[in-house]
Amino acid sequence: MASSLNKIHPWFDICHPCPTAKYQVFIFPAAGSPGSCYREWSKHFPEYEFSLIIYPGRSNRMGEKLLTNIKEYIIELNKGLLPYITKPCIFIGHSIGSVINFALARHMIETNNKGYLIKLLVEMGRGPPNLQDPDKSFVYMTDTEIVEELKKIADPKTREVYDFPPFVEMLIPILKADAQIGNELLPSTSLDIPIIVYGGEKEENVKEPFLNTWKELTTKKDLFRVRMFDGHHNFPSECQDQVLKCLKEDFNNIINNSIS
User: Fold this and answer.
1) Residue 18 to residue 50: CA distance in whole angstroms
2) Average pLDDT for 72-96
3) The domain containing residue 6 runs over which residues?
């Protein structure tokens, strides 16, 4: 089982181990999410080995201290993830995950630590981390307001989970910790890595023009694009078939342009 490998590297779980894969894909989930919806994605990509980043304080790391700033994440990922990046790779981030993966990519390039292996960033459901997010931060919401917001942005198929008090009580401290990271503004550093951005058309505030501002954070402007899906904030789950189709197209396009 892939989960047994966490004894070796607790920061990520290889969804379906594939030692012969040509590329590695690391998925950084959204705030408060264990990222369960991503676990079967690799079955559609035989040349890629998908791994799910597991943040402290959730999944099999429930007893660990929640991290509340980017510096802490970079320090820990530098030890817990970078040694295992051994092939050309792609980072996928959803919501707060896009902030974390962009910050990590910048750190890898600035410290000359395997940054050359990153071939693509796919950023989903959030504007660039150098600009203030238009959505109100969970840091400034009451618990009741947070639950209302979660129901509003949820995949309709799973919305009822937020009516279960024990689950909500467990989730809210995680969301508030993650929201502190979302409140940080990162430098406007352009990376020499292609960036593709996905968004949900039913989001209230994170609209396509705002998502287009990610273009300022890549030097590969000819490869930049924004794709919109007919879903809410959790469109990667809600519109999974369409997202996977577009990922295949974007992987093929970018990899063919960047791997010699």
Assistant:
1) 9
2) 96
3) 2-255
